[in-house]
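Now for today's protein.

===
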Amino acid sequence: MNIKRKLRLLVVLGGVLSLFVVLLPASPAFAHGGLTYPATRTYACYVDGIESGQGGDLDPSNPACIEAIARGDKTPLWNWFGNLLSNADGRHREIIPDGNLCGPAETYSPYRMARTDWPTTRVQPGANVTIRYNAWAPHPGTWYQYITRDGWNPNETLGWDDLEPAPFDQVTNPPINGSGPYGAEYTWPATLPDKQGRHIIFSIWERSDSPEAFYNCSDVFFGSGSIEYEIGVDNPGPDPDPDPDPDPDPDPDPDPNASCSVDFSVVSEWNNGYVADVIVTNNGSNSIQGWTLNWSFSGNEEVTNSWNTSLEQGTGGSIEASNAGWNATIGAGQSVNLGFQVSRTGDGPDPTAFSLNGSPCNT
């Protein structure tokens, strides 16, 4: 199936999903958003279900996601952005008992389970990251991100005393300036706590225009170490067959005369795919009017969705990503951002050779 057909299929599936939401029992506010990075449990299980399912159904392969469906149904995955209480009114500790933080409403109660095999995002202590939060239905408000304290017990359901007393990150009315595989996203910069090992990031979004609040639990692992189910990694252990003759200079010095640079990063991964973010910077002294970025995949990657660009995939893994209508100009010293979603089988190296309008870029 070519890319255009795949994109049309995504549009059709999106329409089916919208119809599904409409046909569900009405509630004051059914679905509004959730963390996509670091991935909240319902989002991670939804992506796992999409990748492992067939015929448009969700069929996760992760054992925690499978158990969650067995304890409930698939509604929390189709509505991974709807983990909310409509009458919270800032009274989170008063109305949510210990053990229920990750799923305050009964529909989402399976996602309270204390397990160490939830899909987990590896992060680094003290890292500066971009938090991404799906904006299914935008509303003003404040987001609070808490982290579990040192010494918490991951084999017990999350309680209020398991959290550090103050949020490590707080933001009010962040911009909707990102676009992910499932729609527009709030994004904002944050500095992660200086932690080690397994933790939970517990996020509360308090709306300022209603008493409604949303709750997300994102499983993260700080630093190195074994993870039972790391998002996007089949085997987190060392390479069993290292290259006996490694490249003596695997990272050559960047070309000081290069007119562009590209920062390629994977922001979300699962067994059979990932979401990538690409930042293209104009290192020259003149503005670029209209741009095309080229690179090639070395494996069997297939782009299934893209944003902030017009992207075409050719034979042999070649990619041509051109500007959208609104970001054709890159000023001197300025950058543009684009993203895409990839489906693949097996692992392959990230692309490292990019050219902008035919000129090679530093990476």
Residues 28-222 form a domain with the Coagulation Factor XIII; Chain A, domain 1 fold (CATH 2.70.50.50). DSSP finds five helices and 21 strands in the chain.
